[in-house]
Amino acid sequence: MSKVRPQPYKMELEPGEYAWCACGESENQPFCDGSHDRKRTGKQPIVVRIEQAGRVAWCGCRCSGRVPFCDGTHRSLPGYVQPKRGQGPFSAAEKGP
């Protein structure tokens, strides 16, 4: 079952290489866990190097024009509901790997 969601994964990250899950099937979202191979999705992760520690907004909807990073495209997708500030599962920064 796909783990695609209509919100970015916002988190504080340290410098390093990260493999963003392009297929949406990883159990370790937004990062790749190899599910694309097991489920034969035909997609490959996108590996990026983060040069400086800081906040990153990874695309959760898989529709961004800047994948693997969020560009706000999720707001224009059918069924999108703006979360109330400070509420819901996307209100706090998520922890990186």
Written account of the structure:
This protein has 97 residues and is mainly β. It has one helix and five strands, in the order ββαβββ. It has a three-stranded mixed sheet with strand order 4-1-5, with no helix packed on it. The protein has a two-stranded antiparallel ribbon with strand order 2-3.
What's the helix and strand layout?
Layout: E1 9-13, E2 16-20, H1 35-38, E3 46-50, E4 54-58, E5 94-95
Parallel strand pairs: 1-5
Antiparallel strand pairs: 1-4, 2-3
Order of helices and strands: EEHEEE
Shape: globular
Low-confidence stretches: 87-93
The helix count comes to: 1
Strand content: 15-25%
Q: Could you estimate the helical fraction of the residues in percent?
A: under 10%
Main sheet strand line-up: 4-1-5
The CA-CA distance between the termini, in Å, is: 21 Å
Q: Determine Rg (CA atoms, Å).
A: 13 Å
Q: How would you sum up the major sheet?
A: 3 strands, mixed
- Secondary structure class reads mainly beta
Count of distinct strands:
5
Q: What's the overall average pLDDT, rounded?
A: 86
Quick structural gist:
By secondary structure, the protein is mainly beta. The protein has one helix and five strands, in the order E-E-H-E-E-E.
Question: Which structural traits does this protein have?
Answer:
97 residues
